[in-house]
Hints:
The chain is mostly helical. It has one domain (about 5-150). Helices cover about 80% and strands about 0% of the residues. The protein is built from five helices and no strands. The chain has helices spanning about 5-25, 30-60, 65-85, 95-120, 125-150. Keywords: Membrane, Transmembrane, Transmembrane helix.
Amino acid sequence: MTEKQLLYVNLGGVIAFSLFMLLSFATAEAETAHRVIIVISEVLGGLTLISAIISLSYIKSEQRFVPISIIAFLIAWLIYAIGYEVGIDETTKYSWIWFISLYIILFAGFYIIRNCYKKVLGYYKLLPPFLLFLNGMLFVFLLFIHIWWQLPFSG
């Protein structure tokens, strides 16, 4: 595959993953549909993460920062998906370890994606702000959930 094709695969994978993640918010009321959308999102995210890791070995130009920013974006979502599948909720002991690790990974991802933005060339320069926005949404969601679970009347 050429460098351009690898970049298109990575870009398409991130867009598909993001659309299915946003669609999962719309299907949160219907349990079965929500689980199906989550599984599709996890599969797409895993495939995109694998393709971004493979792309790192084939892309030698300055555009290698596109897969680096995608990896930094997807690692936080991977940790979130692991916690979701394991079943971490407000009754889980030591759930703060999951939150702290997610916060650290999110902040590291923000830093890496911001630095990748400076080095990405051409039309692909639109990707890092998009990834920052989606990781920002995850961060706000996690803050809300973390605060909600600590309230005395929850649970």
